Amino acid sequence: AQSVTQLDSQVPVFEEAPVELRCNYSSSVSVYLFWYVQYPNQGLQLLLKYLSGSTLVESINGFEAEFNKSQTSFHLRKPSVHISDTAEYFCAVSEGQTGANNLFFGTGTRLTVIP
Amino acid sequence: DSGVTQTPKHLITATGQRVTLRCSPRSGDLSVYWYQQSLDQGLQFLIQYYNGEERAKGNILERFSAQQFPDLHSELNLSSLELGDSALYFCASSDGVRGNEQFFGPGTRLTVL
Prior knowledge:
A: six-stranded mixed sheet; B: 113 residues; mainly beta; seven-stranded mixed sheet
């Protein structure tokens, strides 16, 4: 079974500072990895994903995440955050080649950007 | 706008009652997923349908059931409601291909009093 751990439930950070949101997963099979973002009173939106190939994946709004198989991690980073990045961020996994492709989510990290 | 619609947006009901949540997937998507988001359990997968057939089941209670109709919209039925069923229920859709993005609807907030 899959499980996802997001150790930090809340991360406050000043505007234009760097941020890292941590995600570790546990799985006995190959997985696909995702970061979703949820803005207040909205549904989840895909931020970026890792399926295969280059272990560093990037989003269009400056976020990046690196798949580290040995550490079973998929941490999300941004070198300089903006006020508009304030949201809840969810790390998720799904089984890779076999099985169902439903998502298993972490408990979420609330990122608050302070002006 | 993800293209996934959910109705109603809010639902307030009493314990013991039965409700139906409705989801229309993005045009062309064959797969529908239901997730429950609550404060104590987080985001949990309930059930997936693909082109009218159940594809996968998660932590869905026996009091809950779902179906996907020929026009691909889906309904989640919750019966014998308890206080603990109060949550945000999300529907997501995708083309069903592994690894492809799931597009989430805005959710239905269910409050059981």
